[in-house]
Design a protein that fits this description.
Length: 207
Amino acid sequence: MMRGKFITVEGVEGVGKTTNIAFIERYFIQARQDIFLTREPGGTPLAEKIRDLLLDARQTSMTNDTELLLMFAARAQHLNEKILPALEAGQWVICDRFTDATYAYQGGGRGISKTRIAVLEDWVQGDLRPDLTLILDLPVAEGLKRAGQRSAPDRFEQEKQVFFERVRASYLELARQAPERYRIIDASGSIDKVQSRIKEALDELMT
Ligand code: Z5A
């Protein structure tokens, strides 16, 4: 059995990940590619409980290291229970956020050093890295405007614009350092326009 591909989708708050993951799912179904769609933090009952803690706006005393370790605790569970078995069964795994979000949010956003994150990445993932990461990119203010219509902000959504500027800069830097693994998708303009850009990146992967 050939191992499946591992595709992750990233971006700052409000860039349209959820909207476009539904498009990506349709794309692969039409291409008759067997996929497994999942998300982080979360993806298993235990990891979803950790997600609830991480997003809970009442957890005001959570330290940066606690946040980082909880992200990787959820990831360890998700990887072993879902992602690795799916890849080994030949499915292509599409994950809404993964470790690049840790580098962007806990690294860029919170200021934890990359080397510290890399230790946990190696520990939890071994040599597993995504085959392709789509970064949906949009000026922060526009993303926040798009996301603004939503209900009560979670622990991350309460952050200020400067935090999200650092997150965005970290994503762009990750892509600059390993361009073969990342595609930066311009997430501005209409949903149709964004999706035609995503389609181009996926067509390339399928050939
Ligand atoms: N996090 C972390 O810190 N470290 C980690 O390692 C991981 C995660 C894995 C939860 O993630 C939080 O976890 C996240 C980072 C942190 N916090 N933040 N911020 P999440 O992925 O569940 O949460 P999210 O970033 O808030 O994503 P979301 O809710 O899925 O939003 P979105 O995908 O970016 O946007 P959307 O819901 O698809 O679109 C927003 C609105 O814009 C919506 O009304 C759409 O209809 C509209 N939209 C979409 N596209 C367009 C276009 N092209 N034009 C106009 N309007 C549009």
